[in-house]
Amino acid sequence: VKRDYGRNFPGYGILRIEQEDRRMYIEEMPFFRDFSDLAEAADRRGWHERNGGNLTYRLTSGEVKAWEALFHKTEPWQALVKAEPHVGGEYYLVTGSGKWMRHVVKEPRRCAGIIEISTDGAAYRIVWGLEDQGRPTSELPTHLAVSALKKRADEEKNRVIYHAHPPYLIASTFTIPLDDAVFTRHLWEADIENPIVFPEGIGIVPWVLPGSREAAEATLEKMKNYRAVVWAQHGTFTCGDDFDDTFGLMEVLEKSAQICCTVAAMGGKRQGVSTDNLRALEKACGLKLNEGALNAKG
User: Fold this and answer.
1) pTM higher than 0.70 for the full model?
2) Judging by DSSP bridges, how do beta strands 54-58 and 160-164 pair with one another?
3) In the 8-state DSSP scheme, what is residue 280?
4) Mean pLDDT score of the chain, rounded to an integer?
5) Does residue 139 carry a catalytic annotation?
6) Other C-beta atoms lying within 10 Å of the C-beta of residue 234
7) pLDDT by residue (tens digit) across 21-30?
8) The one catalytic residue among 63, 116, 139, 254
9) Nearest to 178 by CA among 202, 210, 206, 198
10) Mean per-residue pLDDT, 47-62
C-alpha cells in the first residue's frame, strides 16, 4: 500500500530512506526468492548433504535492465575452462562453490551471487554477492555448456539448471543397468503418469569425475535429447523453464526411483506396466514417447 504522508510528516525522511533501501535488495526480487525457495525445499528433502549440489538461473533481459545499476563491475575477469560464445553477455544467478544449500536463505550474499559472462563467452566476473572471496559453483562449466545448448534451441526456455544428490536415484545406479532406455523404462513404470512428465526419457552418464571437462561433455551430449541426466554414483542434473518446472522434474524422478527401490526390497515385480499400457497412455495424452524406452524391458 502506497501512503503519501507529505513532507510535513515528522518521519518523512526516515520513511523515504527505508522505502528506497528496500528497493535495493536483489535478494527480495521474485527470481531470487524462487531461487532460495528451491534451495530450501530441496535441502529439506535431504538432497543436499553438506555443500552438495548447485543451482544456476539465466536472468531475463528485463531483470538485468531493472537491476544492472546495482551490479558492481569492478571485479577482475576470470577465464572459463571453455569458452561458451552463445551465452556471451548473459548474467547468471549461481550458488557458490563450497556453500551449503540450507544457508542460501539466511546468507544469500555469501552463498549465492550474480556473474556476468564476457561478450566472447570466454570469462566471467562477479557483479553481485559471493562475498568473502566466494566463487561460483565448481560445476559452472557444465551449467554453462548446457545453458548454451538449450539457449540455441529456444532462447526463453530452460533458464534454470539444477544439480542435486537425491539418494534413491543414486541408489538406483547401483542396480539398474546404466542404459538410457532401460533406466527410463524403470522410472516410467513406477507411476503411470511419469511418461507425461518426461516423455523424452532421461540420460545416464557412467561414473565421471565431478566438475571435470569430461563430466561437462558427457552431460552435454545427453542433454541434446533430454532435460534430465543421472550421473552414476553421484547425482542428477535437470533443467527447466522455471524453478517449479525444474524442481518438479527432480521430484518426480526421485519419487519414481524410491518406488523402484521399494519394489526391489519387497522381492521384485510380480506384475507391472506393459508396453501396451504405455502405448495407450501415449495415444490418450497425445505424447511422443521415447521409442527406445518403450521397447526396453523395465
Assistant:
1) yes
2) antiparallel
3) H
4) 91
5) yes
6) 19
7) 444 588 889 9
8) 139
9) 206
10) 96
